[in-house]
């Protein structure tokens, strides 16, 4: 798969501060290929993952009572390099217009453009840094519904990562591969059955980025000031993965940063990100519930897979944990748990049809407080 990301801002002659194609290629070169496999094993893995993507459609539709529909996007089985290139392209499509607006604001305020020589150096450095991040992430992701893809959402299954994890936890390969496909198909159904959701999600992310880059100088100042709280990110403030005993990222009356991005946000921006995180928790938790509730008739060893998979998630090494905290991935892991708890609580109270009212539109999505107290969402939406 070859990236074709434009390196110029839409509607202008200025190049983007990030060479996204170069970032994708850098990640592809850096990321390790994955577990050792013969050519025949790779072909079998890829073919089975494609089959699993098809086999997951009906169980998800029946369990979630959501159907992705014909326009929910294609299914791709990729290696780590392919995942990195695809995400570099998607990020560029989302971020470049935001960067263009930030550069234009800077030009108007200072009366001059960023010098081409500086921009060229910045592009190279940013591509290298972004490539390093994508390379790390490419070794972690089992699958993804890429809602940011410029030509519409699509489902990606990362073959070497699936093979690596199934070996590490001693899972039955056929069961584990279908289990992973069920999770990603649920995301495909969430967005495919509710066409408004993708546009709303992209809009929220774009608005947050626009706001964050509205005053780059202040953003840098907040980052420098926030570096003093870096130890809080690395060690956490409690045993709770979210950094707060109540699961809300607070400790001792002070909100604990959950990643580097937290250091550059104003309180208002954090509140907006918390609201978006609540929705992401809903999406991830719902997919986790569906992948488990299809039951042993579809995935015979589902209970064993879940137990071993969760144990593996808790057992990451110290270096991996530090990197995950810096990138905010520990907070993402909590999304699965918090979202699943919300989904199960609401379904127990009002059933699947009652829960599916959450997809009616933006106003029906849970707030952070409602995610923590599902009964308040039920009372608001169902009366």
Give me the secondary-structure topology.
Elements: H1 20-30, H2 39-55, H3 57-64, E1 75-78, H4 80-110, H5 116-138, E2 143-146, E3 154-158, H6 159-168, H7 173-193, H8 196-212, H9 216-226, H10 230-235, E4 250-251, E5 254-255, H11 267-293, H12 302-314, H13 318-326, H14 329-355, H15 368-372, H16 374-382
Parallel strand pairs: 1-3
Antiparallel strand pairs: 2-3, 4-5
Helix pairs in contact: 1-4, 1-5, 2-7, 3-7, 4-5, 4-8, 6-7, 7-11, 8-11, 11-14, 14-16
Q: Can you offer a commentary on this structure?
A:
Strands 1-3-2 form a three-stranded mixed beta sheet, sandwiched between helices. A two-stranded antiparallel sheet has the order 4-5. It has one domain. The N terminus is likely disordered. The relative contact order is 0.11. It has 383 residues and is mainly alpha-helical.
List keywords for this structure.
two-stranded antiparallel ribbon; disordered N terminus; Zinicin_2; mainly alpha; protease; globular; 383 residues; 3-stranded mixed β-sheet
